Amino acid sequence: MESAPQISPLRYIAHLDMDAFYASVELLRYPQLRGQPVVVGGRRRAAHNDPADGAFTTLRGYTGRGVVTTSTYEARALGVFSAMGLMKAAKLAPDAVLLPADFDSYRKYSRMFKDAVRAIAPQVEDRGIDEIYIDLTGPVADSAAEGAPDPWARARAIATDIQRSVREVTGLSCSVGITPSKLLSKIASELNKPGGVSVIRSDDIRSTVWPLAVRKINGIGPKANKKLEQFGIHTIGDLAQKDADWLIEHFGRSYGAWMHEAAHGRDERPVVTYSEPKSISRETTFEDDLHPVRDKAQLTKIFTDLCARVAADLKYKGYAGKTIGLKIRYDNFHTLTRDLTIDVPTQDAKVIRRAAGECLKRVPLDRRIRLLGVRVGALSKPGMLAEVHGMSLFD
DNA sequence: TCTGGGGTCCTAGGACCC
DNA sequence: TCTGGGGTCCTAGGACCC
Length: 395
Fold this sequence. Notes:
Strand content: 15-25%
CATH architecture of the largest domain: 2-Layer Sandwich
Shape: globular
Number of domains: 4
Number of strands: 12
CATH superfamily of the largest domain: Reverse transcriptase/Diguanylate cyclase domain
Distance between the termini: 61 Å
Oligomer: single chain
Number of helices: 15
Structural class: alpha+beta
Largest sheet: 5 strands, mixed
C-alpha cells in the first residue's frame, strides 16, 4: 500500500559527540600523556598510578576481567577499541598506559559541555554522558538576519560556535554532524572525527551515506548485521535496494519496515529534551566466579549490598518502583532474569531485598555465578503525601 | 583473550477483565 | 454452555546503545 509522501518541514538537527571522551578528560589531568596510547578501563585498583614519580601502569601483564571503556586515538591505531577485553588489549598494546575510570569526573565534564551547548541552542536531547542531539532549526531561522543566505552554512556556523564554546569551557574537542534528522546526524558526526563538522543534505544521501556499511546505522547491531551480510547486503545502498516487503518478510514487521526507512534516510523522530527514567539498576561482575553453596555468605552480602545501592539511587533521584528484578549470569555467560511486581512502589532496601530474594528462589543455582544484578522498574515519583505513612487528606 | 555497567525498546505468551 | 474479541498487566528474553 503506497501512501502519499509526507511533506515534513525541513529541520536542522545536529548530533554532537565528544572525542574519546573519558580518555580526553584524563588527558586534562595528565597532559604529559598526550600523544601516547592510553586506555581507560578496568577495576579501581587494577591501575595504581603515581604521576608524581612519572610512573604510570601499563597494560603489560594485565590479568582480570576488565574491558576497555575508552581509548585514545593513538591506542586505536594499535587496534585497541572500546569493549575489548583488557587482556587482549595488553597483547596489542602492552606499553599503553592504563588509567582507572573516574565517573564522577566524567559526569562533571558532561554537565559542563551540555550547559555550554544549551547556552547557544537550548533544544538538547541527552544521549548519554558524551553525546547529544541538538535541534538547530530555531537558531538557524534566527540567524537568517545576520547574512549568509544558505541556511546550511548558517547551521555549520552555529555548530562551529558550539565547538568553540565547548572547548573554551571544558578544554575538550567534539565532532558534529548536521542533517535533516537524528538518524543521519548520528552517521554524519562520525565522518570527520575528531573535531570535525559534517553536513549531509537530503540530496547527498546517495553519494555520502549509501557507500557506508549498514552497521553505521544506529539500531543495526552485530546480529542484524550478520544476517544482512548473509543476504549479501553490506552497504546502506545495498539495503536501500531491497524493497520493504522483502525486509519485513525476513526481519519482522516493525524492524523490517524501519530498516527500509532508515536506508532511505527517512526519520521524523523529534529531539526530546526531557524524559523520565524507566528503571534503575545495579549489577556487578565478580573478580572470580562464585559458587552458590560454597560462597553463599559472600553472595548474600553482595546481593544485599546491591539492593541497598539501588535503594539509595532511588532515594537520591526521588523515585519508587514496584517491579523488582533479578539478573544472574552464570560462568558460561548464560544470563537470565526474574522479576516480581509488588503492590506498593518502594524505595526501601529491605523491601527490595525481600522481593529480589523471591526472584532468586525461581532461578536454578547449580553452577558458578559471574554476575549478580538488581533492578527496580515501573517507577513513579512518590509524592509528599505518600511518604506520610497512613495519613489521608481527610485526617 | 572470553566478554563492564547502566540503560531503552520490542516481542510474545498467559492471566484476567469486560 | 459455547464462542468471540479487545485491552491491560505481568513476566522473560533478546537486541541494541553509550
